[in-house]
Amino acid sequence: MPDTRLDSLRAALPGLRLLTDPAELEHYGRDWTRRWTPAPLAIALPDSVEDVQAIVRWANANGVAIVPSGGRTGLSGGAVAADGELVVSLERMNKVLGFDAVDRTLTVQAGIPLQLAQEAARERGLQYPVDFAARGSCSIGGNIATNAGGIRVVRYGNTREWIVGLKLVTGGGELLELGRALVKNSSGYDLRHLAIASEGTLGIVVEATLRLADPPPPTNVMLLALPSFEALMRVFAAFRSRLQLQAFEFLTDVALRHVLAHGAQAPFDEVHPFYVVTEFASDEASEAEALAAFEQCVNDGLVSDGVISASEAQAAQLWRLREGITESLAKYVPYKNDVSVRVSAMPAFLAETQALLGREYPQFEVVWFGHIGDGNLHINILKPDAVAQADFVADCERVTKLLAEVLQRHGGSISAEHGIGLVKKPYLWCTRSAAEIAAMRGIKAALDPNGIMNPGKLFDA
C-alpha cells in the first residue's frame, strides 16, 4: 500500500515521475552487491535541478532519507535502499548541456552514461579519458560519487582529475556551484573535491563540467603470459621504462578460465599462471620499444609468451580477456575486495596478500585481477553451492579484517575505486584515522544537517 507521505510530494511536484511498483522498487533499490534486500519507499525520477532541490526539501520536512542513484553498477552497497529511503534516480537528467572549445570542457547532467559522455567528446574531436567496462550503464554522477578509476588510470588518473566543475544539491536543499572550470582558484576550501568520492552522503551531484583531452593516439595492445606472480612488477618496470603506457592490467589463469567459459577466445595454446594486458602508442618507434621490452623480459625469464594486436578487432579480443572478467563472474555473486597500495609497495603487499588468501581461503576459488600499474588489486571470492550465503559472507568478512590489517601495515586503502558504501564500512579504520573520520562527520553535518543523505553509507552518524 503506498505510503501517505508521498501524497505531499506529489502535491508539491505534480509533474514528478514517482514509481512504487514492487518490481521497480527492487530494481532501483539495489546495486551489484545483491547482499541486501531492497525496500525503498519509492523511486523519484526528477528531470531538473529544481526538482531535485524540491525533493530534498520535502525529504527534510518529512524526515525521509534519500539514496541518490546513478547506474547502480557499484560493488560496495553505496546505492542500496533497504530501509524505507526515497531513491532519487537521475536517469532522466542525461543530457549534454554545453561544450566550450576554448576551455575544452563538456558540461553534462549527472545522469548521463559514461559512454555517451565519451561519444560526445569524440564528436567534438576530443576525448573524455576515464574508462572502464561498465561504461554503457554507469553514470557520470556515480563516477563522481566514487571517484571511479578504471583501466587507464596509469595514463590519465581517476575521475577526480577530470572534473573541473560540478553542481551539488546539498542535504539542506541548497544548490552549490563548485569549481566553475577555473584553471586557477586559490579562494579557500575546494568543496568540489569534497563532493567527489563522497558517495552521496553530502548531497546529490546534478551537473558536471568535464575536462577533455586530446584524442588518444592510435594504440596497440599486447597480451603477455607470465610464469610467476613475482614477475609482475618487474615486467611493469621494464615496459614503463620504454613506453608511455595507456594501460597495464593483470589477470590470473583462473580469471581467464572464467572469461573463456563466457565466450572469449583463448589467446595461447598453453595455459599460463598469469597474464598482462598492456596498451601503448602504435607508432613505429613505440612498437620497436615494446618488442625490445618483450625480448628483454623473455630473456630474463619474466615472460613466457606474448601476442600483439594486428587490428582493432584483435585488440578488442585481447581487451575482452580483461574487461570480461566481472561479467563472467556475476552469476556467482562473488564477495569482492577492491584494494590499493602505493605502486612502490605493491611487490611486498602482493606477496603478503597472496600468502594470506592462500592460507585463509583453501575451500574457496579466488579470482585475482587488477590495475597493477596504479597499485589497485581486485579480489573476487566465489561461493561454493554447498555453502550457505550467510556462512560464506561471515567467513569472507573474517578474512577481510585480516586483509585490512595488511593494508594498514602497507599504508593502503580498503577501497581503491568502488567506494566504501555498506560493504567496506567496518574496515574504514584501516585507511582513515579516527581524527579523519571525525572531520568527515563534521563536514557531513555542515552540508547535511538532518542526516538524510545516504545515511549509513561510508560511516555511521
TrEMBL record:
Instruction: Answer yes or no on keyword Flavoprotein.
Output: yes
Which co-factors does it depend on?
A: FAD
Q: Name one GO molecular function term.
A: FAD binding
| Residues covered by the FAD-binding PCMH-type domain | 36-215
SUPFAM superfamilies, sorted: FAD-binding/transporter-associated domain-like, FAD-linked oxidases, C-terminal domain
Which Pfam family, giving just one, matches this sequence?
Answer: FAD_binding_4
GO BP terms, alphabetized? respiratory electron transport chain
Which residues belong to the signal peptide in this entry?
none
Keywords (alphabetical) are: FAD, Flavoprotein, Oxidoreductase
Instruction: Return the similarity comment.
Output: Belongs to the FAD-binding oxidoreductase/transferase type 4 family.
State what protein this is by name: FAD-binding oxidoreductase
This protein's species is Thermomonas brevis
